[in-house]
Write a structure and sequence with these properties.
CATH superfamily of the largest domain: SPOUT methyltransferase, trefoil knot domain
Structural class: alpha/beta
Helix content: 25-40%
CATH architecture of the largest domain: 3-Layer(aba) Sandwich
Strand content: 15-25%
Radius of gyration: 19 Å
Shape: elongated
CATH class of the largest domain: Alpha Beta
Strand order of the largest sheet: 6-5-4-8-7-9
Largest sheet: 6 strands, parallel
Number of domains: 2
Amino acid sequence: MPGPPAISLKRAAKLNTKKYREAERLFLAEGRALIEEAPRPPVQVFREAEQVRRVSALKTPAGPVGVFPFLDVTPAELLASVQRIVLLHGVQDPGNVGTAIRSAHAFGAGVALSRGAADLYNPKTVRATMGSIFHTPVAREVESARFLAEAGGAHFARVAAVPEAGETPRSLPEGRLLICIGAEGQGLPEEIVETCDARVGIPSLAPSLNASVAASILLYEAYSRVLP
């Protein structure tokens, strides 16, 4: 007779709530394609339809659900591991955060999530990454002003994305680069903008851009500088 699962259904279902994820340091990844993106096997996988129904955060479950250990890195580790970083300050929409993480993966960057940003391990965030959560270094719950200071000390050029009065994306410097993105509508606080070395704006007919769209455009612009 096989032994009991390493993680029970009841215990796994609680991982849809942040306080339990933090206590266990475990999160859920739902869907075969998402699970297959992981470089290491999950701690536990629930495959049977009834198991998936009980664990899933979706109204219509999307397939097997894997349980994985937390993946985030410290701010110092993030600064040491990549040449380009996007700092998402106060971006609270999980879909935007997940999409920005996917863009960072695509364009060889890391991500820093400020305090108050959407939870990295929220099921909606995880789904929006489409597996990039397993490949992109992410530091979370960072204190933005302190992180900017540390980035400056590590010789990162710090650029604030602003809706107007900034240089064009072509002005982004080469080398180590930290791009600060604020929430759509609110943008970046002036104290964060003032801490940065430069400001950049994306020419647009719309008054503002979705945070993940802005992050994607600026990350690609920076990435294009290192293409052969």
